[in-house]
Design a protein that fits this description.
CATH architecture of the largest domain in chain A: Alpha-Beta Complex
Number of helices of chain A: 6
Strand order of the largest sheet of chain A: 12-18-17-16-15-14-13
Radius of gyration of chain A: 23 Å
CATH topology of the largest domain in chain A: Naphthalene 1,2-dioxygenase Alpha Subunit, Chain A, domain 1
Helix content of chain A: 10-25%
Distance between the termini of chain A: 32 Å
Largest sheet of chain A: 7 strands, antiparallel
Shape of chain A: globular
Oligomer: homotrimer
Structural class of chain A: alpha+beta
């Protein structure tokens, strides 16, 4: 069950060469992508309307794509413009074309009704491609449903456990912090102080140095995580009564990361992530060290979530016990269920009950 | 859905040793084959009637085959002739035996009712084992339904695309030629002139040499392709008003190839093919070069068709758009559907609709 | 379909370290096992009640196990004793705990209702860990349903075929012997003389030496094979009129083997086996030689049974033809079906018919 009227990341801009075909499976659909001469990205159904051969085994001819099984040719609009052996091309002959927007170093594809494809719905990645930020990028394939990855990112208490030796820095600071959650139009804002936490080693501070960090992220449909982390001296959180830091309170270190999950199908997903460090306070080596830390940490998530998916797959009637930490993730699951329901015009309870493990409330 | 009352190629004669068991899966049936002392090939159900162990793990004892799990012994007729631990062998004890005929270097197995197994129904391969022809052989495993391979061989316009760099010789001659199709008892005859086409390099002609070739093949149930190719100087087709070449018009080069597709199951097939060159005009090196070219070309087909199968498998309700080039393949699909229907005594439309992607007509 | 109210072997005692988690899948259930400080083995459902992550990716904290996804902690009883982020732990929060008994070098787990877990139901392995026996151990993974392995061990006529070159010693003595079968509370006793059989080479006897051996085993639910083999001079069987050897008839060689099959799921099993030789007549080298022979022989069984399973899987309506040798195995299948039926309170015929290939009687 996917939300289709939505923009999904199909990859990093640098993954789309000037000349060549890129294939993706998105929401179960086979998609072939390429750049036109004007560098605009085209996304077509990767399935010829004639004998269902993949167009990605075809040949680019200018801005058009020819199927190399029996030679049908398609325009960037998806319309078939040549059928060898016959002069007539029926108007209905063609393949689906998906709206594409390239923005913030990501190629976004609209998987639903093209008429509803509003570029204003594209979430803005933080610092991507901006001169003031030292950017690094990564991606990771998941053998897991995308909602399990959403869940992971919506409950960062897992940093103290899954990432005890990496992002968690052997501290309970993340597990002990309680975020405040605010509803957004198509998502949530989740904010918190993480108090008296060790610093990443690549900051070059003494080993016993500590920080209070203000961690604020927006989590937007279908699975876009936009986190800004601002680091202050220890005591800053209490000094401000745990309220959001005043704008004039200058952090000594700022990190931003944008992450996007795109379902391949119900059991596989792909995860794109960035690291952006403020060029005023960080250097290239620190940027390398941070993305390397992210890679190791996200491999830890991957191992846990894929294992979780395997357990769910072998469990006849999976049930989950909701805890106090599950507030944000359950809120987002309900939001997604509602959006999918609105899209389908279907009954909400069917969507909510059919797809997910039953949930029992454990919090007092 | 398979046509069972039909002869299927189980392999090349040279693949069946005087002493030893050969296993095949044909139309979903496990089959074990071996030669008797008189060299006749026996084909038995590869599944002991006792505990369902494969007889192919058994032991040849003269012309009989003993299951090496608990020792039941079977005659070439499939009849069980010994059950250890009991003197009585019930009459019904046994495994299925399949009629076998070895002909034209191929071992043919009848997969249906033995009573209907008429050797006269075996298609005759072209030049196999005949002194006048320099023969080479090959085989290729397919992860695809056999009908997709039939389709491929019944629309040779694909030579200009799939095989642009091999059989197609960077020419549109194949795509531009329109064959004439004639019905046969259990198949089709497809004939055409391919005009002004480059020659294969191993003929040793100048690089710009061209030929008009008369390409005629019979395509017979369940999937046997028998192609004779006769090469004449350019202009020959027009000089004869595009009619079949007169018998006294001597070609400068003749090639024959026989090919047979045997379903392993609904999603896998095996493909046997030969190359035969006229010994009067060709030599051994040219025979080697031609089979090598075939291998490369058939690997190209294999990549395209397996990809096509994967697309079909992931498409919920596959639909195909019929073009002008699909005449022969659709005719053959209807023929096979009719034969299967007649065999089943089943409703024709059920067979035709249930198995295949829905087809829309695109030709004017 | 499994018998759950039963003890199953989860492994050899030496496979459970003092500090560390062991994972098993038993009867389809994911299980994590570990030793407490007092060395008692704990077996818990390997699936956190919160988000279904595997506890085997967790961390031992004293005798407790913490899930390393979001930090829930579980006692050896399965009860959840800590939920990070909330002070309240609901009484129902927890995972299933399985009764465990360590006995005779095996760790036994009760897979059914804990209230019925009676240690008196544990079969006693022969000679395991006893000073008078030189013991060797092994295990083997099977891609086959456990009942096919039961079948194998309940018809030892296969020694003359499957094991012709190993345990069968190129003799028909096993195939020609007819065992007598006696019912036990939860199993069968199967006894026979195997007459005038060659001896294993590691006994160091002349190559033409023969023996009459008294082979007696108990086969107990769910799949425990306890075989005592006593070797006498040839002629001993006839001298005693084929009756069980008198207690005062001293064998020149005694071997015991205990074997246990644990279903992983419907299509996979694990097989544990021992070899025990009487320390009075055998030495360490002979013990090594015998377990090595067992390994080779059990690999032969494995190849045959996995092949049998694959044949069954591809056979639409598998039917088996019962022979005179199938008495014991059919009796045990009926016993298991009855025990499962009693456990389910279900209809007996449903159990017996639904699961197994249909059986036709072949014996006169």
């Amino acid at each position: 069950m996917f939300l289709r009227n939505c923009w999904y990341v199909a990859g990093w801009s640098h993954q789309f060469p000037a000349d060549g075909l890129v294939t993706r499976t998105m929401l179960g659909d086979p998609v072939v992508l390429y750049r036109k001469a004007d560098r605009a990205v085209v996304a077509l159904e990767d399935r010829c309307c004639h004998r269902l051969a993949p167009l990605s085994l075809g040949r680019l001819e200018g801005d058009d794509l020819r199927c190399m099984y029996h030679g049908l040719k398609f325009a960037p609009s998806g319309k078939c413009i040549e059928i060898p052996g016959q002069s007539f091309v029926p108007g209905k002959a063609g393949v689906r074309a998906y709206p594409v927007v390239e923005r913030d170093c990501w190629v976004w594809v609209w998987m639903g009704d093209p008429a509803s494809a509003d570029p204003a719905l594209i979430p803005r990645a933080l610092g991507h491609g901006e001169a003031g930020w030292i950017m690094r990028t990564g991606e990771l394939a998941y053998k897991a449903n995308y909602e399990l990855i959403n869940d992971n990112l919506l409950d960062l208490s897992h940093l103290s456990y899954v990432h005890a030796k990496t992002l968690g820095r052997n501290s309970m600071a993340w597990a002990d912090s309680r975020p405040r959650t605010t509803s957004l139009a198509r998502g949530l804002r989740v904010e918190r102080w993480v108090v008296n936490n060790p610093l990443a080693p690549y900051l070059g501070r003494p080993a016993d140095a500590r920080t209070d960090s203000w961690q604020s992220y927006d989590y937007l449909a279908p699975g876009v995580f936009l986190l800004s982390s601002r680091f202050y001296p220890p005591g800053s959180a209490a000094a401000g009564d745990m309220a959001a830091p005043r704008p004039d309170l200058e952090p000594f270190w700022v990190s931003q990361t944008s992450q996007a999950i795109t379902p391949i199908d119900e059991k596989q997903s792909i995860y794109y992530f960035s690291s952006c460090l403020d060029r005023e306070s960080a250097n290239e080596e620190q940027a390398d060290a941070q993305i390397e830390l992210f890679r190791r940490a996200f491999d830890e998530d991957n191992a846990m979530i894929e294992a979780q998916q395997r357990v769910i797959d072998r469990t006849p009637r999976p049930r989950m016990l909701a805890t106090a930490s599950d507030g944000a993730l359950n809120q987002f699951r309900r939001l997604m269920a509602r959006l999918i329901e609105e899209e389908a015009g279907a009954d909400a309870s069917a969507v909510a009950n059919g797809q997910h493990p039953a949930i029992t409330q454990a919090s007092a």
